[in-house]
Design goal:
The structure holds 2 protein chains of 2 kinds. By secondary structure, chain A is mainly β. Chain A contains no helices and 11 strands. In chain A, strands 2, 4, 5, 6, 9, 10 and 11 form a 7-stranded mixed beta sheet that branches. A 4-stranded antiparallel beta sheet of chain A has the order 1-3-8-7, with no helix packed on it. Chain A starts with a strand and ends with a strand. Chain B is mainly β. In chain B, a hairpin with a 6-residue loop joins strand 4 and strand 5. The chains are: A mainly beta, B mainly beta. Chains A and B meet through strand 5, strand 9 and strand 10 of A and strand 4 and strand 5 of B.
Amino acid sequence: DTAVSQTPKYLVTQMGNDKSIKCEQNLGHDTMYWYKQDSKKFLKIMFSYNNKELIINETVPNRFSPKSPDKAHLNLHINSLELGDSAVYFCASSPYGLELFFGSGTQLSVL
Amino acid sequence: DQQVKQNSPSLSVQEGRISILNCDYTNSMFDYFLWYKKYPAEGPTFLISISSIKDKNEDGRFTVFLNKSAKHLSLHIVPSQPGDSAVYFCAAKRGGGSQGNLIFGKGTKLSVKP
């Protein structure tokens, strides 16, 4: 039974399209995150939600919009996809903000 | 501006020997330091952490050492096993709780040869 699951695992799409990545955690954690791992392999935080409220919003284009319908879900919607958005996106959750539990990642390829 | 640096992109070690992974940081305000392990096509998994008020934390084969004056931490794996082959990320955080975020290094790929 996967603790943090995100779908899809692979996403290949054309420039200009709109796409969503879904994330669900069954650990009962209050805090959820989206991280991006770019081609240089850096893992950078994009957003953090605590109990459905936005806590952290790093410098991310406003084409990226997180949505948290409840504290077990944090979805990521991306509008007008660009080539530079190609990366691996990781969802994570945490009980106390230190130990993060990550999903297996979504590899996004924008053509 | 990289606040957490892992200057060795890769490390190769013989099975049974010690693996030492290094990490440097620039922000003296960090309160917690963590190591994560990542296998291909999987998300990172938490390995071990240390608070800035300590200089050592041990968990089985894994020990993390913190040298605050040098702004340096290291992860020791003894003895190394082939299953330890993975990418290891160092991470740091200022403050506890949900405020603030984990800042990750670029990772070091460890290969343990049988």
